Amino acid sequence: MAHPRFSSFVMFAEMRTGSNLLETNLNALEGVTCHGEAFNPHFIGYPNRDGLFGMDLAARERDPGELLRLMKAETPGLPGFRYFHDHDARVCDLVLFDPACAKIILTRNPLESYVSWKIAQATNQWKLTNAKNLKTAKATFDAEEFAAHVEEVQGFQRRLMHGLQTSGQTAFYIDYEDLQDLDVLNGLAAFLGVEARLAALDGTLKKQNPEDVADKVTNPEEMAAALAGTDWFNLGRTPNFEPRRGPNIVSLVAAREAPLLFLPIKAGPERQVLDWLAQLGGVERGFDQRKLRLWKKDHPLHRSFTVLRHPVARAKAAFDEALDRAKPDLRQVIRRSWGVDIGDADAIRATDTAYRTAFLAFVRFLKTCGAGQSSLKVEPAWATQAACLQGFAGFQSPDAVLREERLAEGLGWLAAELGIEPPPLRQRADTAAIGLAQIYDAEIEAAVQDAQLRDYIAFGFEAWRG
Predict the structure, then answer these.
(1) Is there a contact between 86 and 69 (Cβ–Cβ < 8 Å)?
(2) What is the tally of helices (H) and strands (E) in the chain?
(3) What b/e sequence results for 96-106 when a residue is b if at least 16 CB atoms lie within 10 Å of its CB, and e otherwise?
(4) d(CA 395, CA 261)
């Protein structure tokens, strides 16, 4: 039986997987139109474009489904777009579970895509059409960053596969290397149900970094050593038949000479705890499931723990982090779409009033983002601590959940459990230009409780007392 004609398509891909090249070849097929990254939180379709089908960013933010409807209604032939794991999460299910939407899943060796991404960051060259304009640089391989990259991409791929399986659909899988195969691309055209075929491959875009991957990094020996210890086939995973999840264990930290494993929650007292662990003989990082299993085997009396911080103090820590280290495009999206003016950190910190106004707006943004009403994904520092603990439970429930306000007592108890002499918990000076006590009032407390109510209920937090 002939394949039914689809009414739209989505290309599931990631940065530096060849999605620009595949889009160019799709658009060369008569009757097919790919509208770029239509649901990228930072722009619509393509950078520096104001809108699409009469909708600007603010309108799309309010109703992404309307843009999807307009795309299908107003595009002649077969419309589609590119979707990456960090695009508007509300759109994913709209297309994933729609059998009339064709799924194209573009993949690439994760090491190649990671190194390519690092080089593009260094050169700010994301697309090449003229080889004379090539900018060259070498990437520095970061083992923890790469592990996080692989885990994030694999988690998204598992989500796609599970959605396809449970809805009885299939997808057209295509690898980066297949993009140079004319027959494969014409097979994709057949899958989409269009009559047009490509006579030749598009030659507009040029491969930017054709060298061997070892020649594209500044530290190939370190990269080789890190990859040699990677559990590529997940052999350390204990088999079970529950729904598959992607455990997030890259951020775990263990004491090197003591059986203590720390499960840090972002925007918490992480540095203070790491300093305490380091006094026990140093720390170990960069875990995957196999390395964690080996560490546990070598430390049979191990205890794991995490530390909760009051939601108001944690929201302020997340805000200060956003002021100092958030990517410029992220700051722009938050400011433009949500009215949170965090673009000029110096101006915000100039007065208590300016800081308090921006902080309150940020807290209200956290509520909207956490409720799934934003195209931006919920960053780890913005998630509730209850959600973080649920995530830990997928692979390692902590033996102890400590509180920041009684941290010295809690760590001392853990050390006593293991017969260890506890080192001193050194207090870290508050280096923030504006302290929480300078701006805190009932309005801020109410806003944080509204945004992070789950934590107040789950852990019995009361109003912040300083």
Answers:
(1) no
(2) 19, 10
(3) bebeebbbbbb
(4) 13
Say whether 336 sits in a helix, a strand or coil. Answer: helix
Q: What is the mean pLDDT of residues 261-288?
A: 94
Angle, CA of 251, 229 and 113, to the nearest 5° = 75
Q: Which residues neighbour 109 within 8 Å (Cβ) at sequence distance 6 or greater?
A: 176
Scanning the structure block, which residue is given the tokens 């589609």? 80
Would you call 98 helix, strand, or coil by DSSP? coil
- Residue 93's CB is within 10 A of a number of other CB atoms, namely 11
Structure tokens at 386: 């209850």
Mean pLDDT taken over the chain: 88
User: Strands 303-308 and 283-284, how do they pair?
Assistant: unpaired
What's residue 210's pLDDT?
63
Place of tokens 């972002």: 266
Instruction: Tell me the CA distances in angstroms from 63 to 7, 10, 93, 131, 369, one per residue in order.
Output: 21, 18, 14, 41, 14
Q: Looking at the DSSP assignment, which residues form a beta bridge with residue 81?
A: 10
Could you tell me where the beta strands, DSSP code E, fall in 321-418? 400-403
Using DSSP's 3-state secondary structure scheme, residue 12 falls into strand
Q: What is the pLDDT of residue 394?
A: 77
pLDDT digits (tens, 9 = 90+) for 406-439: 999 999 999 999 999 999 999 876 777 899 999 9
- Report which DSSP code applies to 243: P
How long a stretch of residues is the chain?
466
C-alpha radius of gyration, the chain, whole number: 24
| Tokens 């007292």 belong to residue | 269
Entry pTM:
0.72
Residue 382 DSSP code: T
Strand partners, 253: 262
pLDDT score of 196 more than 60: yes
Are 79 and 8 within 8 A, CB to CB?
yes
- Read off the tokens for 185: 């691309």
* pLDDT at residue 244, rounded to an integer: 32
Mean pLDDT of 95-109: 96
Residues paired with 105 in a beta bridge: 12, 173
The angle at the Cα of 222, spanning 219 to 227, to the nearest 5 degrees, equals: 120
Determine the Cα angle at 438 with ends 435 and 444, to 5°. Answer: 100
> For the segment 304-351, what is each residue's pLDDT rounded down to a tens digit?
999 999 999 999 999 999 888 767 766 777 777 777 778 788 889 999
pLDDT band at 248 (very low <50, low <70, confident <90, very high): low
